[in-house]
Design a protein that fits this description.
249 residues
Length: 249
């Protein structure tokens, strides 16, 4: 039944992890890759795989971009992945069995195991990561959120969980934290719906982001990895609001 499934991935400079993802997806009939201007070997890697349908175009924000990528798929059943995620064989087997009797109003929520420099993170807000990743586009699709997009569900949506999980190589080098903070904070700050706060409130919000991650979400149990995540979360909050404030000065 995996032949009736299309995987959808948006990419930009994903050469470091894309081959691992595509190797895991070889049993699936179609993998749609929508690239947003890669300057590394991402496109060359994608072209090596017989089941890849490669497209290029502009980045419209995460939600709108993924909605467009979904529209390019041949199948109605969609598995949405990031270029640094790879499903386990067990989960794909469970998914194939489920698709034989699936209702089009059902969606699949999968556990994502997040890795930081070769080790899964168990706390810091990363340890209990369940995400809806499989849906039928006749009834569901991504929302329009520019960042932290998700599958829009209704009161009639039925959520299913299957055996297995997705392995997410979230960070393979620490510099990625800085790149993500800069990119995501810029996208968020560009929204006119984001409030403009005084500097002292921005400082308090940033400090609380650290406190929440390192203490309330028990990031200290992840050692230095938890500390890095907590600092990154605080930076993300600080730069998001500070960039928004700078726009009005």
């Amino acid at each position: 039944m995996l032949a009736e499934l299309s995987v959808v991935i948006i990419t930009r400079n994903a050469a470091g992890t894309l081959a691992r993802t595509l190797n895991a997806l070889e049993p699936i009939g179609e993998v749609v890759i929508y690239d947003n201007g890669s300057t590394d070997e991402t496109l060359e890697i994608a072209r090596r795989y017989h089941n890849v349908s490669l497209h290029t175009g502009a980045f419209l924000g995460f939600g709108p971009t993924k909605r467009h990528a979904v529209s390019l798929a041949r199948q109605d059943w969609i598995l949405s992945l990031d270029a640094d995620e790879a499903p386990t064989a067990r989960w794909l087997e469970s998914l194939g069995s489920w698709l034989t009797h699936a209702d089009t109003r059902e969606v699949v929520e999968v556990r994502r195991e997040n890795w930081l420099l070769g080790k899964p993170v168990q706390h810091s807000g990363w340890g209990r990561d369940w995400l809806i990743r499989v849906f039928n586009r006749q009834h569901h699709d991504f929302n329009d959120a520019m960042v932290h997009e998700s599958i829009a569900v209704t009161d009639t949506t039925q959520v299913v969980r299957l055996d297995g999980h997705i392995e997410h190589l979230a960070v393979t080098e620490l510099g990625q934290f800085l790149e993500k903070v800069n990119r995501y904070s810029g996208i968020r700050a560009s929204s006119d719906t984001l409030r403009v706060y005084p500097v002292w409130i921005i400082t308090v919000k940033s400090a609380f982001a650290f406190f929440r991650t390192f203490f309330l979400q028990r990031g200290f149990l992840d050692g230095w990895r938890g500390l890095v995540i907590a600092v990154s979360n605080a930076n993300g909050v600080f730069w998001k609001y500070m960039k928004r404030r700078a726009r009005d000065q």
